[in-house]
Write a structure and sequence with these properties.
- This is ZIP family metal transporter.
- It is a multi-pass membrane protein.
- Its main location: membrane.
- Strands 3, 4, 6, 8 and 9 form a five-stranded antiparallel sheet that branches. Strands 1-2-7-5 form a four-stranded antiparallel sheet, with no helix packed on it.
- A hairpin with a 4-residue loop joins β8 and β9.
- The longest helix is centred in the C-terminal third of the chain and has 33 residues.
- The protein is an alpha+beta fold and 402 residues long.
- It is flat.
- The chain contains eleven helices and nine strands.
- The N and C termini lie far apart (88 Å).
Length: 402
């Protein structure tokens, strides 16, 4: 006697019922929200003060006076009634209008005779009497976007990113003379370098988040960007594990990952330099160039470390230098021409997540190799390398902290 077990297939009517049950909560939720929006909560208390938020995004100084770029990030429409510069009321023209809807940007043109080297303060008074302030610490003409400035910014990014990373990669022949324990110490030094970079990247991201409009939740963007980019890269890495059939290929992959993570960090350095020049702080921009150049030469050591068992060609080193240093050029362009605090916070978060994933990969490499060779993964030599990496980055970072 045989019994045939047959799995019954869902009929079209049962599929429709399942879809309806899935949509029912959403329909009811939409109905509730619509009812609340139309009927209200029944509480008619007026707010004690108008809710207006006006963010001063950028102040530009030129021969025509002062131009102020603003964003209405509040929940209500904002009308700018008066403009005060250095304590005096001034006429101003507005584009597109003196009234800005929510999330609308506008430009305020003030024919004010600003003075080179002096501080200036711009106050914007809304029709409801709220005051929003923008400041210029040291007045200087804002560089105008043109082809010459475009290439000058590119050259600055090249000096800051590609050249120092390339110089650091020149230590590769010297590093290849190390033993297995020495190679592990160099990898540990790389982890130290990256550990400092990830802390620094998070710090820069939170600074940008503090300057961004609160409605965009800049701090959250830093955390979300870091988490998602780290998990995404880990998922990509795991999906490609079967392709890592040789140590040579694995070493190149890790070197590319390190270069990519450092490149995202260097993008942030370019943002800082470009924005310094954009607001007329040329002295600060030059200081940052020198500091970042000294700081970034150590990054080449970290990129070269996974390649110590390989024999890469000079093309490999050129490619790695461009991956790690090239984003500094893009960052300088972005900072000088289209800087945005909110996007900067997100980019720093993504960069921090990428660096965290690289730390994870290198640490796993040290553990796996140490187990294979019967070595201690947390030896005094490795600990010394990790500490040295952090100290090297800390000392060179003193050149750009002020």
């Amino acid at each position: 006697m045989s019994i045939n077990n047959q799995t019954s297939k869902p009929t079209s009517s049962s599929k429709i019922k399942a879809i309806l049950w899935g949509l029912l909560p959403l329909i009811l939720l939409l109905a509730i929200i619509t009812t609340i929006a139309k009927v209200g909560t029944g509480i008619e208390n007026e707010p004690a003060a108008p809710i207006e938020v006006l963010n001063v995004e950028k102040i530009t100084l030129n021969d025509d006076g002062i131009q102020v770029k603003v964003l209405n990030s509040g929940p209500e429409e904002v009308t700018i009634a008066q403009v005060v510069v250095d304590g005096a009321f001034w006429n101003a023209s507005f584009s597109p209008s003196d009234t800005l809807k929510r999330f609308e940007r506008g430009m305020i043109h003030i024919p004010y005779p600003w003075v080179q080297g002096d501080p200036h303060e711009v106050k914007l008074i809304t029709s409801n009497g709220l005051i929003f302030v923008g400041e210029v610490a040291v007045a200087a003409a804002t560089p105008e976007a043109n082809g010459k400035l475009f290439w000058q910014y590119a050259l600055i990014g090249f000096y800051v990113g590609v050249i120092p990373v390339g110089l650091g990669l020149l230590w590769y022949p010297f590093l290849r003379r190390f033993s297995v324990r020495g190679m592990h110490a160099i990898l540990a030094l790389t982890v130290g370098l990256l550990f400092f970079l990830v802390i620094d990247t998070f710090g820069e991201g939170f600074e940008m988040a503090a300057e961004a409009p609160g409605v965009f939740q800049g701090s959250g963007l830093v955390w979300f960007g870091a988490l998602l980019s780290c998990l995404f890269l880990i998922a990509v890495d795991q999906s490609n594990e079967r392709k890592l059939s040789s140590e040579t290929y694995a070493g190149k992959r890790v070197a590319n990952k390190i270069a990519t993570g450092i490149g995202l960090h260097n993008f942030g350095e370019g943002l800082a330099i470009g924005s310094a020049f954009a607001v007329g702080e040329a002295a600060l921009g030059t200081f940052l160039i020198i500091g970042f150049t000294l700081h970034n030469i150590t990054e080449g050591v970290g990129i070269a470390a996974p390649l110590l068992k390989d024999r890469p060609t000079w093309k490999t080193f050129v490619k790695l230098a461009l991956i790690a240093g090239g984003p500094a050029i893009i960052g300088t362009w972005a900072g000088g021409f289209i800087f945005n605090d909110t996007l900067a916070a997100l980019f720093f978060g993504i960069g921090a997540g990428a660096i965290l994933q690289v730390i994870y990969v290198i640490s796993k490499m040290i553990l796996k190799e140490s187990e294979k060779k019967g070595l201690s993964p947390v030896s005094w030599l490795n600990f010394s390398g990790l500490t040295a990496g952090i100290l090297i980055m800390y000392v060179t970072a003193l050149m750009v902290k002020f």
